[in-house]
Amino acid sequence: MADLPDDQLADTRELHLAWLDYYRRTVERKLAGLTETELRTSRLPSGWSPLELVKHLVWMERRWLRWGFVAEPFDQPWGDSGGTEDQPWQLADRDTVDSLLTALLAGGERTRQVVAGAYDLAEHAAAGGRFSAGNETPTLNWILFHVLQEYARHVGQLDIARELADGGTGE
C-alpha cells in the first residue's frame, strides 16, 4: 500500500497523526477521477454519496477534536446532517470536491495543532463544548482512536462506493 505510516513509529502521538494523514490522502485518491454525478449520487441502499461521506468526515473530526477535546464553541456542530445528529448527511450547493477536500486537510492541520498543544494523550477533554461540566470526559488518546476508526470505516465504505461507480479497487 502506498504511503503507509512508517512501521518503525513508536510514539503513539505521531502514530495517530500519521494514520489520520494516510486516511485523508486515501480519501483524496478515492475521489480522484469521479465525475460530478458520481460524487453526488449514491449507489448504496443507505443513500449517502461520496461527497456526503467526505463532508461527514470533516464535521466528525471537528466535533471530536475542536468541539469535543478543546471545547471550542460551534454554532452548528452537526453541520453535515442538517443540524441534528439523527438526520442523514446533506450537501449544500457550495459543497464541492475541492472545498470539502480543502476542509478535510485543514481539519487535519487543526488536529495536529490540538494534539501538539496537549501535554499528554491521557489528558481529558475540556468540559463546555461537546461534553458537559460535571461528567467524565474521554482522554485525547481515546478521541484519537475513535476518529481513526471513523476514518478507517468510512474509507472502507468509500472503497465500495468507488468500485460501484467505476470499478476502481485497491488503495
The CATH superfamily is identified as dinb family like domain
The H/E string reads HHHHH
N- to C-terminal distance: 7 Å
Query: How many H/I helices?
Result: 5
* Shape category: globular
Largest sheet features: none
Structural category is mainly alpha
Number of structurally distinct domains? 1
InterPro entries: DinB/YfiT-like, MST-like
Could you characterize the architecture of this molecule?
The chain has 171 residues and is mainly alpha-helical. The protein has one domain: dinb family like domain (Four Helix Bundle (Hemerythrin (Met), subunit A)). Helix content is 54%, strand content 0%. The chain is built from 5 helices and no strands. It has helices at 12-31, 36-40, 50-69, 97-117, 140-166. Helix 1 packs parallel to helix 5. The longest helix is centred in the last third of the chain and has 27 residues, at 140-166. The protein is globular and about 45 Å long. The mean pLDDT is 92. InterPro entries: DinB/YfiT-like, MST-like.
